[in-house]
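In response to reviewer comment 3 from the previous cycle, which asked for concrete evidence that the modeling workflow produces usable outputs, we include below a single protein chain processed end to end. The sequence was submitted unchanged, and the resulting structure tokens are shown without manual editing.
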Amino acid sequence: ILRKNFGKYDETNIKSNKKYNLEGLPASGILRVATPGDYRPMACWEPRLQAYRGFDIELVRSLAAALGLGVTFCRTSWQRLETEARHAAFDLAVGGISRTQERVATLTVSAGYLATGKTILCRQGEEARFSDLAAINRADVRVVCNPGGTNEAFVRRFLPQADVRLFPENAAIPGEIAAGRGDVMLTETVEAAYYIRRYPGLMAPLLQRPFSRGEFCFLFGRDFAPAAGQVDRFLASFRQQGMLQRLTDQYLS
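The workflow returned the following structure tokens.
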């Protein structure tokens, strides 16, 4: 578990040479989709398959098909995500991205398509110890989260007294908690529900009482932002057609 800040992203390495048509779609016919790829069940790189899998991966493939585009995926990180969006390093970013007021005000994001909220994972048998934020905001509680995203921002704001530990690979944090190398993982209800089904030793005692409520969204790269209206219309149609419910049943039930 790391207890240090990570290096500043070198913005000089971000380039955008893509061209877009009058509808805001990439003239190449390929939608470039970025993801941190470490957030199950939304979007995660699966080495055995050598592919990204998850709710968001299937959803964005359906979106691209509806727009008449192919898809290529690239890796980003929670630390670089917003900088790369501003510098048009991708068209869309997916993978459990929270639709926050700050992002709505400063970036281009889609409509929300999946409800979620901040909660915790802990080891079985310690549920009573973590009854609310006040009980977690203690110097003897090791809180583990991934750096650079809304989880870290939440921890810094609401858990300033806790022993905060940053871990760079989000998908590995549940295993750190199960192994006793941390006490609490600050995460989203969607992720917490996923992992308590796969780690018998983990619990999510506040799953039905999240600390916050929000939604996941797509984040637009600067040059693809003019297509936001089209994307929102397709998301609305996917909801009406039952696609979002099907994905929920497949990945989250």
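Confidence is low (pLDDT under 50) at residues 1-17. We consider this sufficient to address the reviewer's concern, and the full set will be provided in the supplementary archive.
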